[in-house]
């Protein structure tokens, strides 16, 4: 079995696309309009896929408090600088629980916890 993607229902497609493209660094892979004003966008190349769905007129989402998506970055310091430059609050961290990993968390536009991780080799 292979993991395909994570599906996120978002309240505003443009805001979420901006976050996932500019902050997370994912590229649009595919996008479509479906009935009732619903937009679907798949982001990511290769194995990392995120599906954003925005239902026309629905502005409330419930991401849950105990879920996060983690994305590996080449430099945690550069990612932290980008996040701060864009005015995004760090919600937790940075942490280095052992000599091999560093990470911190931010929230996406709908409140989903996003973890940026640097593997230290």
Automatic annotation (TrEMBL):
Segments forming domain VOC: 2-119
One Pfam match: Glyoxalase
Stored InterPro entries: Glyas_Bleomycin-R_OHBP_Dase, Glyas_Fos-R_dOase_dom, MMCE/EMCE_epimerase, VOC_core
Superkingdom of origin: Bacteria
UniProt cross-references to PROSITE patterns, sorted A to Z: VOC
Entry keywords, A to Z: Dioxygenase, Metal-binding, Oxidoreductase
GO MF annotations in UniProt: dioxygenase activity; metal ion binding; methylmalonyl-CoA epimerase activity
One of the GO biological process terms: L-methylmalonyl-CoA metabolic process
Protein name, per record: Putative ring-cleavage extradiol dioxygenase
Organism the protein comes from: Sphaerochaeta pleomorpha (strain ATCC BAA-1885 / DSM 22778 / Grapes)
